[in-house]
Amino acid sequence: MTNGVLDEVYQRLQQTGPERDGWLSNHAPMAAEALVRHGHGDRVHAWIDGYADRLSERPRGIQRISAGQWREPLGDPVRTGDWLTFFDRQLTERPWREVLIEWWPRLLPGVAAGATHGVIRVGHAVRALLDSEQDGGATPARVAELGAGLGYWAARWQPLAPAGKGPYRSTDPRSALDAVPRVPHQRSGIRTRLAQLADLPGWPESAGAAPGDGGSGAPDRLAAIVEAAVLRYGTHGHGNPVMLVHAATAPSAIARVVPVLPPALWEPSVQAAWAATAAVTSAYSPPDARVMPDRGATDPADLMARGLHDQDSHGIKFIDTALDVHRRTGEQAVLDVATYANELITRG
Prior knowledge:
Helix content: 55-70%
Mean pLDDT: 93
Strand content: under 5%
Structural class: mainly alpha
Number of strands: 2
Protein name: DUF4243 domain-containing protein
Region (Disordered): 164-186
Order of helices and strands: HEEHHHHHHHHHHHHHHH
Low-confidence stretches: none
Largest sheet: 2 strands, antiparallel
Organism: Catellatospora chokoriensis
Radius of gyration: 19 Å
Number of helices: 16
Shape: globular
Number of domains: 2
Strand order of the largest sheet: 1-2
Keywords: Oxidoreductase
GO molecular function: oxidoreductase activity
């Protein structure tokens, strides 16, 4: 990303708000980062042109949030403008890593914020910052985008129902996902669905014991959770093609941030990633699994081009996550699921 296209995009979007219509997320910065990363910087501005009618103005603040009085406005979407200004100020005064490390444990318990889009936007911003540091240093535009992600997360901060503690439900994340109980009423929005988790039998046990080998490192455990969520989409994505994307993209975002964090924050990050994946799975998985249609082998070089052609931001971000998994595992099935997901999303 040495050509500055992503910085241009971030500058272009800097005065847009994190949401529109009171709840729907602004996906443009996240999708743009994925498109540029995968070699489509020459077309990203045209993609944003097509997305422009889904952008709103950045909200204005109401009252200044001070560094010592942040608890009360946490999770108050009316204070979105105040939170955006707060993080702009924090990131002007201190290095971005320092701000992130301070706020990560404060925000992580509210991982469900904005249907997990808060943490997802932060994950994309951190990846962009790490890239820019390799190219000579963190750019102001990328630091500002991190501030927008943190501000959005803080404003929509939403904890999940308490999880229990105990031994790992399974060392296999896919088996653990299959064991997550479904919320009983699945005809409403995500906030109503997540509210049912508190009374859902089996939820504390499912969410509280992150799967994986306890001796494995956090990056490996996170990667396994992401891979399981991607592959499970192939059999369950028909339940809600858009929302089930977040079962994979939320833990993927956390995985992108973990390398920046001190080791003391790794295990809480794994637990939050698993809880987010389990919550989305519980809220949107259908009761039946289906065999994914055979589309023939997918070429990884063509996959993001398909997402760009179909122009859906959720498809683009799922493809981005799937390509990360494929780079690590080489599994063809991951690419095939991403192709199928993009078709489901754009068809729906």
